[in-house]
Amino acid sequence: MPNFIIKTHQKNAVYKGNQIYILNKGMNSGKPQKVPFTNSYVILFQNEEDAETVYWLAYSLWKAKFWHQSLLGSVIPFLRIADFKKDFMSKVNKMLQEHELHKKQIQALRLLEQKEDQLNKNIALISEMRRVILLRYCK
Asked: Quick check: pTM over 0.85?
C-alpha cells in the first residue's frame, strides 16, 4: 500500500523525495502535476513507484471530473483539503483492491497520452506548413 502524506503546498517549501502536486483552485481542481502549482496540495511519497501509481489515479479522477462535485465557491471554485483527503484516500484504497486492473489502465492511459502528443505535434506541423505556403503565395 502506498504511504503518502497530503498537505497544502507552501510557496517556498522544498520537499525531499518524491511528490506530486494537485491543483486546488479553479475548474481544473484536482489536476495532478510533477511541478508545483501556485494553489495546490502536495502529496509526499517514500518511493517513485508509489508516486507514479497515485499520479495516474489522480490523473484519472481529474479527467473524469470527479472533483467537480466537491468544489465550493461561486467566483473561483476551490477544493477543500479535508474533502480531498477523504475522497482521495477512499479512491486509493479501492484502486489497491483492483491493482492489476489499475496497472492495465495506466498502460492504456500512457499510450493515449503519447498518441495525443504525437497528434498535437502533427497538427502544429500542418499549421506551420499552411502558414509557409500562404506566406509564399502572398508575396
From this structure: no
